[in-house]
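General statements about sequence and structure are easier to judge against a single worked case. Part of our work consisted of pairing the sequence of a single chain with a tokenised description of its backbone. The amino acid sequence and the backbone structure tokens for this protein are reproduced below.

***
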Amino acid sequence: MRLQRNARPDARPDEWLDEPRGGRRDGLGGPGEPEAPSAPLDRLLAASVARRFYLGNQSKVEIAREFNISRFKVARLLDAAVAHDIVRIDITVPAEIDAPLGQALAERFGLRHAVVVGLTDGEGGKDGAARPADRHRVSRWLGTAAAQLLSETAEEGDVIGLDGSPEADALSEAVNRLPPCDVVQLTGVHGPDLARDPAVAAVRRTAAAGGGPAFPLYTPFVLPDAATAAVLRSQPAIAGTVHRFGRITRAVVGIGAWDAGLSTMYDALGDAERETYRTSGACADVAGHVLDGAGEVIHTELNARMICVSAAELRAVPELIGVSGGARSAGAIRAVLKSGLLTSVVTDTATARRLLRHDGADDTARTVSSPRTTE
């Protein structure tokens, strides 16, 4: 029998009591019975009790009544079921929150929230670069943590923005409750199917979690020329979404490092466009904008060919959560922190430590404080 189970919040106080003194210790008797030599475990009874408790969600008192035994014997049978491998408890989430590291990160960079996820397995290869499967795994768990943060902070009437990053996609799959909110797509889609692109699906799923309306952006991430982009901006469906960029109160965006496989924007561009940004010092991208190592937005003719939230609109968002992790993400996160765009960060423990160190390979700057106002 395999199960996943947290501590039972509905356990009754009388189930928490220890066995009265003098009770039998062999796991078979009830309170007040004389002690006796240990008896063989009734494996069938232990399995039946465990099945009702763990899978049927019955209380110990209810099980005791059904089998005409004491609740103390039920408790001992449950312990014995685990000890004898009748029940195996698996914790399937390979991550936990490192609260002290998150607090240190928030204080160092003047952030409202800093959520640091400690993954149980390493995400880097021998050369220090994250493998594709590991990058996907990191994005899923960071997106899950961002979903929890959004669920805890969102308020009714918020206008929530999501970009087309893997982290935003993971958030949309993990979030299960939100107050009624508008959810707005911040960047165009990367695939050929505009209606079924993951970015569009993410906006719809997140909106559904709160029962609010979704405002997708049915346009390619990069358009052939500025004239085409201008025409599309005037289309009613697209204009309705773009008009809401200035109303966004909370947003979640992925932070990409400027290299292949580490940035959705980098992967969407051609070689010539990538080189243009690289020669300008590209270090990171966020929601369709490329930043250099000093946190300055790099402006090129490509900006006119994209329909996305502007840097000024991002800066005006009261709560902007940046999500990124993995072996090569620290430099990109630092660049975006320097820009002053972010109020909150979700990352992994290894990246958080790189950001806090003064002498690491990624650490070209000392302590940086966001010019954002913190609470």
Q: What stands out?
A: The longest helix spans residues 132-153.
